Amino acid sequence: MAESPNPSDFDLDPRLVGLDDGTDPFVAAVRATRMPMVITDPRQTDNPIVFVNAAFCTMTGYERSEIVGRNCRFLQGPQTDPSAVRKIREAVEARTTIQLELCNYRKDGKTFWNRLLLGPVRAKDGGVAYFFGSQMDVTADRERLSGLEQTNSVLASQVVAREREIEINEARLLAAADAGDLGIWQLDLDKLELRASKHCKTNFGRDPNLPFTYAQLLEAVHADDRSRMQTAVQRTVATGEVYRIDYRVLRPDDQQGWVRIQGRLERDADGRPAFLAGISQDITPEVLGRRRTELLDYLDREVYGVLDDASEVAYRAAEALGRALDVSRAGYGTVDTQAETIAIARDWNAPGIQTLAGVLRFRDYGSYIEDLKRGDTVVFADAFLDPRTRDNADALVAISAQAVVNMPVSEAGGIVALLYLNHATARNWTPHELALVREVALRTRQAVQRRRAEQDLQNLADSLERQVRERTQELMRSEAALRQSQKMEAVGQLTGGLAHDFNNLLGAISGSFEMLQRRLKGDAALARYVDMGQAATKRAAALTHRLLAFSRQQTLEPRVLQVDSLIEGFEDLVRRTIGPQVALEVAPANGLWQVLADPGQLESALLNLCINARDAMPNGGRLTIETANRTIGEEGALALQLTPGQYVSICVTDNGTGMPEDVVEHAFEPFFTTKPIGAGTGLGLSMVYGFARQSGGQARIHSKLGAGTTVCMYLPRHEGEPTGPGESIAPTKAPPDAGPGATILVVDDEHAVRTLMAEVLREMGHSVLEAADGPDAVRQLQADLRISFLVTDVGLPGGMNGRQVAEAARTMQPAIKVLFVTGYADHSALSHTHLLNGMHVLTKPFDLNAFCQRVQDMIEATGP
Questions:
Q1: 220 and 118, same structural domain?
Q2: What pTM was estimated for this model as a whole?
Q3: Which terminus of the chain has a lower count of CB atoms within 10 Å, N or C?
Q4: What is this enzyme's class at the first EC digit (predicted)?
Q5: Are strands 839-843 and 817-822 parallel, antiparallel or unpaired?
Q6: Are 656 and 621 in contact (CB under 8 A)?
């Protein structure tokens, strides 16, 4: 490409190119606008570009020096529409305005759609001085339009498919209605004319080939349901709500059935109610089936499985059957086949029907006793029509028994009882009803026999049910404990991270105050403020220490302990702390197992529990510290979220105010407290929980409002020799005198902390190197083999933690000594079971004097 011309090579208005001292405001706006703009000069050969603004450069990817002097064709490429290019050329030649969209190419070869508006700028003499073009990247719009066109095409095809699907579904609906015996109906509300399909007529027991009027429909509805049905119709017409109702119908054969009607209101063009249209369904089998199920369920639940007296069982069964079948009378009587009598102790009667209690002679009502003796069921729909009863029909009508079912109950091959149904008027008994009567009679006969066997099984069933219930409750408690444990785990991770970051900040603050103390020995006023800052820093450090305890990220120094000996050693401290109003009782276990735990943290946890117990007994009370050996099996471990095995339990019990369940549920959560503001941080119990979990155990609260509280820690049993409760912490010493200087590498991503440690080490006379991350530390270790001491944070950026840096250092220099400084104990990186000789841990924030002393002690120690 030829060398790009300089704008000064063109005869342009100085204001246009910004060469004068007072650029025209319009020109300044064109240069500053975010809309890409160009100006070409048609008076020069090939109409070159003489001006572009920054937006045009941004859009195309070219520098201004690469654009000015070239024709706009350099933006075109293979995908540029030749017809669009021709139209632009014709417009330039005709000195007219043109607007179109064409495909252009950016400098990186990527295409974009450019909406171009190109127009002539005329001089005073009427000739064209320039062409002014505004550009707009409309690639996204084009893609969106293309997507819409494709979507419209898809939608159009979907509409066609949907219409076809509707047609198919309508045909299927008609076929399904026929297959499902669904009737279709329509009622003209003005004329009360009913149009009913064949299935609709069949639902009402009508001939499908004969007319079926609305008046006939009303007549078919059971008299007790007719008013409810008409009210439902009126409500639908008035409100437009769906018409849905089930009611009884009486069919021409005197059989009772049930239909389900559903319909909707249709309005005319003026919005007035015009039609009701819907479907009908014969639900007689469904209703009878449901009634059968409900009846048998009731008998099994309330009669057969509950009552012991045989006569009461028989009466209750007959009553339930009579109500279910809507008869006049139902009863159960003992039959004497020799005397041909039935003794009825008690029967059920519908309203207005007299009881038959007493002894009746079968021969007074017909000759069907002969059938009963053979064990045959006696059924007749109308006493006047049955040859066995027509001569005695009046006697049967007199006792409200024109229609009868007598179901014999036999034992040892002979009839012993009779389950009977009477109806005051003629009635056809359906096969479904007779089957139900037969089943109830059979179950009633078996009930007493089964009851005897059930009584034997009941005790076993009660026992099994109790075990299942207890197991279910235990599982529910375990599930609740698991959810609580998961919640505490999540909160612990959050608080641990916060405490770690806070400890780094506190380390910088504390160290800065300490450095100020060293330099303000002669200024008592300023030193007092520094002391106040240090005191506040220590309080904050204690707070983060408890947060780390809860989150199980505190630095522990576990030892094999005899818990009873530890408790005995600080019993006096507990007595002084709880005061004389609270009686302390210590109940040690005989032969208590050893545990592996940090003695200082265990003492702190127990002291926290004792202080909480004291606060729960404002008027005094009794506080008990009790230890015991516990072997926890599968069930107990599941409830406690522990591994089955042997544990030492340490329980602190008070007889104070106790806690409600909702408080117990949250008691271990950090910052949760029921104490008044300023009376507690809410971290005591959370620290206890965290310590127990970090030590491989668990903590649990058992409390009842008004009945006191017990908090137990469960620590795993440890096999090994005790190491005692631990050594007392030495008081902070003054910084050690500088001895022979060592070369020390300090690694910490917290700049302030790293700077403070390096400064005090240099004051001790050591040569100090600094690194902000693991890779930088390894590079310095490789470059300087004089490094004999490594101070490193545990959590470091750069892909390497402090432990990995220490391992790399030991690989290069096996004798190097390592001091880890950390805001919390990263278990994956620092475990006391894996620390090698010459490796120590110091928890942030720390006293600089203590830091110096630790470094000096490690340097003076023999061996790595």
A1: no
A2: 0.35
A3: N
A4: transferase
A5: parallel
A6: yes
